[in-house]
């Protein structure tokens, strides 16, 4: 079988200022921590005015030319992070998110399908936010309000059911094969919040998706691979499937995010670490997971990257070889607009 070899479309639908600093400034968001804060504070809550600017960002950050270049490089997969507010009727008064993103998601998915890509849609930001002080949630909140909230989780289920229906009925989404139900919940944390996620949210989200597929008459082999963070993420349980039924465990895919925690400034040690970094586990063998985010960031060591190209080629190859012991990998990320972030 063909290994997944792909890239994330980071900052396309959820702008992360650290990796798109000039873009963020150009969008009128200087000083804002995340999209919610920019529209609320920098735009004075004027969602319509902000949406015009965001639509220009969506139009230009990832283009048809980008998709063609990815294909030319031999990549076969894209993972698209999206926020729950893309379903605009879920957004309530006092919540500040741009409008119009869904049309651009359809456009990108259609381009990718034409180029033969496998597509993963990732609910990168859930209602109420799943981790505090994180721009990838779209709302830089000091508290994660998603957990143990019927109101917020119902909105997540509504989003997942809605996007599932579109995936199976709209030709633009014909190559979407996986749907991730939450990105990066609280890392390496087993507490009341994350236990609730494992014991309640996971099963309920899966049921919503499978129920929509049943109503639509989707063939078993054409069902979405519902994607969860893997056991190594350590959120809520050592086994993220511990509260799922046998039926709910079918057609799952596990997502491993591995930003190599290398403290050594010795190139040989860095390469040895990568070669020994096992990502498969007894619980989740290689054919059940992908490494859905990784990079070549070394926290300032061995930069500028262009001066150490041979080392970086070896390090990329070492990680790639290890990650292909799983179903494959999706690099973070396709595009940044800062020269000092070339190893992302």
UniProtKB/TrEMBL annotation:
Chief site of localization: membrane
Keywords, ordered alphabetically: Cell membrane, Cell wall biogenesis/degradation, Glycoprotein, Glycosidase, Hydrolase, Membrane, Signal-anchor, Transmembrane, Transmembrane helix
Family: Belongs to the glycosyl hydrolase 5 (cellulase A) family.
Enzyme Commission identifier(s): 3.2.1.58
Any one GO cellular component localisation term in the record: extracellular region
EC primary class: hydrolase
Family annotation (PANTHER family): GLUCAN 1,3-BETA-GLUCOSIDASE 2, GLUCAN ENDO-1,6-BETA-GLUCOSIDASE B
Reactions listed under catalytic activity: Successive hydrolysis of beta-D-glucose units from the non-reducing ends of (1->3)-beta-D-glucans, releasing alpha-glucose
Top-level lineage group: Eukaryota
Leader sequence segment: none
Function (record text): Glucosidase involved in the degradation of cellulosic biomass. Active on lichenan.
Subcellular location as annotated: Cell membrane
GO molecular function terms noted in the UniProt entry: glucan exo-1,3-beta-glucosidase activity
Record membrane topology: Single-pass type II membrane protein
Name by which UniProt lists this protein: glucan 1,3-beta-glucosidase
Domain (Glycoside hydrolase family): residue spans on this chain: 53-337
């Amino acid at each position: 079988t063909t290994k997944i070899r792909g890239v994330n479309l980071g900052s396309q639908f959820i702008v992360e200022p650290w990796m798109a600093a000039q873009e963020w400034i150009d969008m009128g968001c200087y000083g804002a921590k995340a999209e919610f804060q920019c529209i609320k504070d920098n735009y004075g809550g004027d969602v319509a005015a902000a949406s015009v600017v965001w639509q220009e960002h969506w139009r230009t950050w990832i283009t048809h030319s980008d998709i063609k270049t990815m294909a030319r490089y031999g990549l076969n997969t894209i993972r698209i992070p999206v926020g729950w507010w893309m379903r605009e009727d879920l957004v309530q008064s006092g919540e500040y998110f741009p409008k119009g993103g869904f049309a651009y998601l359809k456009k990108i998915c259609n381009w990718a399908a034409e180029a033969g890509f496998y597509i993963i849609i990732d609910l990168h930001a859930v209602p109420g936010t799943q981790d505090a002080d994180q721009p990838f949630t779209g709302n830089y909140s000091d508290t994660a309000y998603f957990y143990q909230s019927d109101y917020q989780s119902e909105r997540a289920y509504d989003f997942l059911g809605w996007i599932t229906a579109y995936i199976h009925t709209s030709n633009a989404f014909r190559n979407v094969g996986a749907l991730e139900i939450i990105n990066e919940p609280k890392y390496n944390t087993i507490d009341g919040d994350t236990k609730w996620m494992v014991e309640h949210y996971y099963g309920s989200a899966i049921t919503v998706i499978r129920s929509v597929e049943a109503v639509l008459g989707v063939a078993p082999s054409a069902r979405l691979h519902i994607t969860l963070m893997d056991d190594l993420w350590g959120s809520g349980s050592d086994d993220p499937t511990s509260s799922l039924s046998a039926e709910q465990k079918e057609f799952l895919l596990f997502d491993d995010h591995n930003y190599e925690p290398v403290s050594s400034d010795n190139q040989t040690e860095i390469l040895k670490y990568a070669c020994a970094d096992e990502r498969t586990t007894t619980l989740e063998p290689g054919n059940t997971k992908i490494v859905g985010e990784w990079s070549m960031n070394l926290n300032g060591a061995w930069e500028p990257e262009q001066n150490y190209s041979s080392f970086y080629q070896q390090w990329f190859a070492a990680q790639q070889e290890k990650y292909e012991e799983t179903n494959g990998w999706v690099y973070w990320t396709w595009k940044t607009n800062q020269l000092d972030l070339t190893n992302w």
